[in-house]
Hints:
Helix content: 25-40%
Strand content: 15-25%
Number of strands: 6
Shape: globular
Strand order of the largest sheet: 1-2-3
Low-confidence stretches: none
Radius of gyration: 16 Å
Largest sheet: 3 strands, parallel
Number of domains: 2
Amino acid sequence: MIDLKIEEFKPEFSGKMNFYVSAVDDLLRHPDDQPTIGMILCKSKNKVIAEYSLRDMHKPISVSVYQLKDTLPEPLQGNLPTIEQLEAELETIYKIELALGLGAKFEGKIIHPLGETVDEQNEM
């Protein structure tokens, strides 16, 4: 499970990732699969804050930073998912969040991860 953030790491990100990893392990993981690994990718992080945030977590969760580049290294260019695959994954996550009652809401509308909004009464 990867949570990509466009900001500096905050301690509450670890609690949210713990929730996501637990939900994936409970709802999606096959009995033969290993436990889910959570990765929080942030624009930046304070190492001490990240360590305290993860200290008593009992699930495999890590925090790392990313750097934006103009182009991908050649070995990675053919190994990353397509936009369509990413959109399908976001759609799956959106449906799981709706099923769990966790869809992001703003002014009575449910926010779809791909930018659409839906009235709460007319959920997809």
